[in-house]
Amino acid sequence: MPTFSRPSPKNVVAQHLSRRGQVRTAGEVRFIKDRGGDRNEWAWNMPGPMERQIDEDFIFDPRYLKPLAATLRASLMAMGHAISAHDIFAKIKSADVSPDGNLGGKGYIQKITDIRRSLMNVVESLSAATDTLYDEIKAPHWHPTEDKIGPRERNEVREIVQDAEAIRHDPEGWAAEEEEEGVDEEKIEKIEKMAAWKMESDDVDPLP
To answer: Is residue 103 part of a domain?
Structure first.
């Protein structure tokens, strides 16, 4: 069984940033590391096709740019917080928080090493997903000569993409600033109300 070295989140981000502006040329030889189908490395999928087969008759409706851009922004936010979570958790010594190397209870028990691996997988998976979404949004087929959406909606898409660009430049730094600010009182009150509502809903007998 081959062994695999797991890169740090910082290396994943560096790789993520280096992909911008990356150009593949004809005749390029790419060396892909064989992951051997290890279930613990679920985020490192084999690379997809080098070229898409797009039907010429398919119409790319620019109205769908907004949800795609919003997905990109949210995914980049998630990646920033995932990197932060991994960095913080990786600094915790198992012996300081667990006598058996596990965390959790009542069915939700995991090895600390598995949690570290899961967080790293999440970072890599989000990195790959955001790269793909970014390339898709920038593709020329979403930006026809004749604009079919109004200027207001186009500006909304532009603002979302600008947010995504800023986060994409430094997702870890963005997350650090967000975490320093914390959650304001209004958000805490809203979360508490939602939690109370869910508890009441769970207590309702679903059968008549």
So the answer is: yes
What would the DSSP string read from start to end of 46-64? PP--SS----TT----GGG
Domain that holds residue 89: 62-181
Task: Report residue 35: phi and psi, to 5°.
Answer: -85, -10
- Phi, psi of 139, rounded to the nearest 5 degrees: -65, 145
Number of domains in the chain: 1
Instruction: Supply 103's token pair.
Output: 């965390």
Q: pLDDT tens for residues 160-172? A: 999 999 999 999 8
112 Cβ contact partners less than 8 Å away, ≥ 6 residues apart: 92, 94, 97, 98, 101, 102, 103
**What are the pLDDT digits (tens) for 72-103?**
999 999 999 999 999 999 999 999 999 999 99
> b/e for 83-120, b at 16 or more Cβ within 10 A?
bbbbbeeeeeeeeeeeeeeebeeeeeeeebeebbbbbb
Residues whose CB is less than 8 angstroms from the CB of residue 23 and which lie 6 or more positions away in sequence, other chains included: none
Q: Is residue 175 part of a domain?
A: yes
Between residues 80 and 31, which one has the greater pLDDT? 80
In a domain, 47, yes or no: no
Q: ∠ CA 35-53-150 to the nearest 5 degrees? A: 110
Which pTM does this prediction carry? Answer: 0.68
At residue 9's C-alpha, the angle toward residues 89 and 94, to 5°, is: 25
Does some domain include residue 32? no
